[in-house]
Design brief:
158 residues, mainly alpha, AhpD-like, globular, CMD-like, Carboxymuconolactone decarboxylase family protein, AhpD_core
Length: 158
């Protein structure tokens, strides 16, 4: 499979892609724990079927110290007992925030309240932006058929 577009080939795409990716980098410096960010990014990407992002965030999480057991269980986090209450709240918010068309009302009050028990406003802001950002990146990759060769190296994109 060949990509339909090269995001860095033309001036419009290049400028927009660089600014867009700067949003992702700014989230890395937020108060939301780094491994939680990777778990959320991975789960959103699994739901959306974005192989490029699944590859990237699995490897980034592993490089950050995440265990293979927990990475393998992200897709089944509801049944797994290896995640903290805070991580479970973040994953639940990420799922409802990703499946907005399926959840006829978006993120429920119960899911929001559960997340708010574990995260302060700054962290919730980062979590919401991360879920939105990952959904956007997934869609860009899927629409343009960005191929996943499995060759992502942690830190490749700064």
């Amino acid at each position: 499979m060949d990509a339909r577009l090269d995001y860095f080939a033309g001036p419009t795409a290049s400028k927009a892609a660089k600014q867009f990716m700067a949003v992702g980098r700014s989230l890395k410096n937020s108060e939301l724990p780094a491994l939680t960010q990777e778990l959320v990014a991975l789960r959103v990407s699994q739901i959306n079927g974005c192989a490029v992002c699944v590859d990237m965030h699995t490897k980034e999480a592993a490089a950050g110290g995440e265990t293979s057991v927990r990475l393998n269980l992200v897709a089944a986090w509801r049944e797994a007992t290896v995640f903290t209450g805070a991580e479970r709240a973040a994953l639940e918010l990420a799922e409802e925030g990703t499946r907005v068309a399926d959840a006829a009302g978006g993120v429920s009050d119960e899911v929001w309240a559960h997340a708010a028990k574990h995260y302060d406003d700054e962290q919730l802001t980062a979590l919401v932006i991360l879920v939105s950002f990952m959904n956007s990146v997934n869609r860009l990759n899927i629409i343009t058929r960005q191929p996943c060769k499995g060759d992502y190296e942690p830190g490749m994109f700064g």
